[in-house]
Amino acid sequence: MSIFKPPKNGAAVRMYRQGHGDCYLLAFPNENENGDPVHVLIDCGYKPGSQRFVDPPTDPGDILTHIQESTGKKLDLVIVTHEHQDHVNLFPKKKRGKRYFDAIDIKNAWFAWTESPTDRLAKRLRKKHGDQLLQLVEARNQLASFAAAGENDPTVQQLDAVLAMEFGGEQDGFDRRAMGAAAKDPAKSLNKQGLKLIKDKAGKRNVKYLSPGQTRLVPNTKVRAYILGPPRRESLLTDEDPVGDESFPGGHSSSHGLSFGAAVRGDANQSTPFAAEYCVGKRKALARRHFKEHYGRSGSGVNDDKKVEVVDNADWRRIDGEWLHSAGSLALKLNTGINNTSLVVAFELPKSKRVLLFVGDAQRGNWISWDDKPCKVGRKKVTARDLLGRTVLYKVGHHGSHNATLAGEMDDDYPNLAWMGSDEFGDEFVAMINAVNEWAISANNPPWRHPLRSIERALKEKAQGRVFQTDTNRLRKPRDVSRSTWEDFKNRSTFEDIYFDYVINDD
Hints:
The protein has 16 helices and 21 strands. The protein is 29% helix and 16% strand. Strand 15 and strand 16 form a beta hairpin. The two termini are 29 Å apart. An eight-stranded mixed β-sheet has the order 10-9-5-3-2-1-21-20. A seven-stranded mixed β-sheet has the order 11-12-13-14-17-18-19. By secondary structure, it is of the alpha/beta class. Helix 3 runs antiparallel to helix 4 (154-167).
């Protein structure tokens, strides 16, 4: 197998097809003409089980071997957008007891500021997130014991999916012991182990925690990277769903219900649907004979030969676990909070100034912040509108989910799809979606609409059909696209079983 190379002037992007998740290998020319290609890896993860729905089905281990061989076991830069299973769980993957990445030399690593061990806000957010995870694990276990369907309860399964995202792993289903231990000691989660591996291999001096407004050169290249997100305002990190015209048709908003976390902790001031004066605490209630006999866990009904009465402590009289079903809504909120910490990077090619935009799973709060702190090159301000206008490749956010690509018009004052590819390179615009639609719909309860059909249609219209998607290995020329335009696209594209390649010229 040959080393993955860029054109003499330009860049090459390899989108791996490991399943429902992100793994990109970028190749740039070395600033030293005689130097080896510069390789940048962005994320490396997938949702277990989703690889079976790729045509043909893929083996994540083959992907990791392919990365080793394509880079000569050397990565100049690894970028981790955020800490979710489908972005990081392949970093610590092992074969015969050895991790694949142990064999790869990693020169530099970039993370979002939210991963910084010294940033005060980052530390506070991690503490808060850890507390929520503990509550979520406890709620999940309580619900599984209360629910009639037990482990098969829909809300339990929903929680399992979110917890798997937070802790990592490569197994379908829920490992109660492993995830409980990881909730108490985050270092035990596979996600954390993956991040630690990258940091350790790069070395402390070569690990950077980046904030919006910063710019950096990709090591050994003239390619400039502009950092757009994540925002440093906590209110934006938890701002998840598009508002009004920002939403594509068919999108939805998530509601977060009552405070199940408070109920797990037994807080006296937990949220309830009733005013405080109408509430009686559980301990006080069960100290009273009436409540104990009719709603407690002990007592007996009246059964005689003439009639059968419902027992006083029948299950339907109690709501022991009903509040736990609102756990699903905090689970969604917790999940979204991490998505919005995604490191958003716009790579600018040195000659033409074409832009490659990688947004991780950034959602609304991240998007609308991109122009809050414009980047600077010398004294020149470079805005998000400018960078998006020159974008020729868009790594679609959050698998094409409803809340990760904003709709809008050119004259709107917030970043949106209309801004992309709106300058002189607009007829070159290409999109890449990391989504396995059949798995997303069939393996999740409720189904994940990845990608949302209206977003997929909008991308195909804007890109004139040039939209790569993990589970689709062939693209068809739209009727209104000229043969020469489509042939140019095909000549710069490669379709293989385990990856797609695309070349961007810088001239």
